Amino acid sequence: MKRIRCLFCALLLLSLAACGSDRPDASTAPPQSDPPASSVPESQQPLPTPTPSPTVPTFYHPLTGVACEEDLSGKRPVAVMLNNIKAALPQQGNSQADIIYEVLAEGGITRMLAVYQQPEQLGPVGSVRSARQYYWEIAQGHDAVFIHAGGSPEFYDTKNSRGLFTVDGVNGYYSSAEAGMFWRDRDRVPGQHYAYEHSLLTSGEAITAMLTQRGLEAHSDGYTYSASFVDDGTPAGGQDALTVTVPFSTYKTGIFRYDQEDSVYYVEEYDQPYIDGNDGSQISATNLLVLQTSYVVLDDAGRVRVGLSSGSGWFACGGKMIPITWEKGSANEQFRYSTADGSPLSLGRGRCYVCIIPNSQIVSAR
Asked: What superfamily does domain 60-365 belong to in CATH?
């Protein structure tokens, strides 16, 4: 019996040993491999961020060549006569003019014709002064609405004989309070008090309302301003022109000082900065054009007739200056400028200041 019991135990141990041999030993188990890396199809992988390309402006300002957000090429500008006798200074709204034309008016005194493409952006503008025939002809070259306060007999002869429309602050409908176009303010600049003849103002709001009322917002059919602009208008081969002196008469000389940081000429007259009375800013321009021509005295008041057909002159931009030629022709034509070899002149993008001086005056630059 004891022998049977021992045999049974032996068989049981053998059975347990056989079952244990089916389990793999931990030390001999095969190594587990890392899970496969997840992969994204190439078509779904994020693309590299592209380098932004320079934005090409959609529109350019027709009078300055500067990039702008709307098409202004079909919009008619306005041209306003500004008083420049010392007793009337400072002018107001002059710093916002896209082009300033300065021409002798009488007795050695100059006046400015300020051309604005977007008068709706203006505040007060003035003081507004009387017209001359040649200022009107310059405005006509821009197909601009001409705004003035009175005028010479020669100008009125032309206006009346041709039935011209102009916005006159002294004679006609727009001189009335009912029109709301002009008003007088003898204290128009803080700290200043002016004579009555230097007190007439208009404004961007009044000008815009007049243009809308008269349906004058758009250019005449077929009109295009022909000036061409480039990013850098510095003339090749030009002489140094960091300071340009432009004499009009014994009464008035203009000084234009180039600022290399701002890339503009800052303007001085009467030994002081030429400023805007609205905000005190000094008038500046990217392009300075000096046109020399004939002046003929018409009467005892010293009024003159200015030749606007053609002539020679100077162009300064970027601190350099070159000789040019210019032509205008008839009253409705615009100024066209050429280099000495007859090629069309390219202006720098920005405002223009145009001085029209007698042939006898000598321009200097250094």
From this structure: YerB-like (3.50.90.10)
